[in-house]
Amino acid sequence: MMAELAALAVIGAGPAGSMTAYHALKQPQFRDRKVIILDRRMTPGTPVNCAGGIASEWLTAADIAPPYDMPNEIVASRIYSMRLYAPDLTCVDIDLASPRAMGYTLHRDRFDKWLLERAIKAGAEFRPGTSFKKFERDMILTNKGNILAETYVGADGWQSRVGRELGLHGPLHPDDMYTCYQELREATNASSEHKIYLFFGSNYAPKGYVWYFPVGKDRARIGVGVPFSIGHPKQLLQRFYKKVPPFSKGRILGKLIKVEGGMIPATMPMSNPYCGAMGEGGVAFVGDAARHTNAATGGGIHTALLGGKILGEAIGTDRGFEHYKKETEKTFYKQLKRAYTLKRMLWNFTDRDYNRARESLESVDLSSNASLGAGKLFRTLARKMIRKNPRLLWYLLKAMFGAHTARTSPETEGLI
Description:
By secondary structure, the chain is α/β, with parallel strands linked by helices.
């Protein structure tokens, strides 16, 4: 059986796949090697299924902080504060204005396109409209021919066909998948350009939340994410519009431009994101395919970028998959495990608990923490909330001792 030869074949041209290819090719000893990126889509980054939020510290860690590394036109808005709404619609503001804590909302289609073009300029070959079918011996079969590579990377999303082919991925438990629906709308409140808004409560998004992310001065993404076991995010968002006065009275909602949505894994990260040996037909997983998603927030851009950078450098310098595993454990793996515990903790929250949590945040000095990075900022706030409201500690312990591992569908028990 004939096959095209390559040093590295990356399945998936999202941020994780493009970062992996780029950083492999940036290593001197890998610079002239053949790297192929294939994607079943003709235009990666579309359709947009993401609100596009990310903290500046993650872009800096991935060496793509604007404006010096990443073009300014990719940035939709700079985020300097966050407003959290409790179920009773009282709120608290969190300052994110320090250089380390501030964030961005990105134009995801432009962002994905830029990352891919950067990898192509570094020497990668892109094969659009090319679908992975299966492994046969040490090669992969696609709808446009076969590829025999020394190393393969599964960067093909949370439903990773590569992972399923190898028996490493199976259907997630409905509680560990979030279904999301969001609307891109004209924004009528110009003062919201640099602030994101999150709404919590069983009346709005049971076991999830509603978000408002600015997209420049005149647009915003408004959406809701809830566990798949609850479902109906579109209906929940419509109900939210009717229940929350600024939306129900038309002061915020502008013309509907586009409907977006998708699924997000909200489970534990893969404990071992590779199989086989690098350079011998081994396979590594990165981004959503490695379940590198924050289960509490649904955020996954940052881990896709960092994971891709670490994996690409490991491949390009021949350090091996074990180096990739160790570095991701140091960088974000423990954070993702804590996020899964936090998600299970928040599931125990009643509306009254959310209201009390807001009161706890209101009573602490938030300004003294503004210089912290985003991750440390929220861990510090969580500790202060528990001191003000000890009942939260019970929820945390319950989540910790009741959720050491992610749950799976019965037919895939033990595969994740």
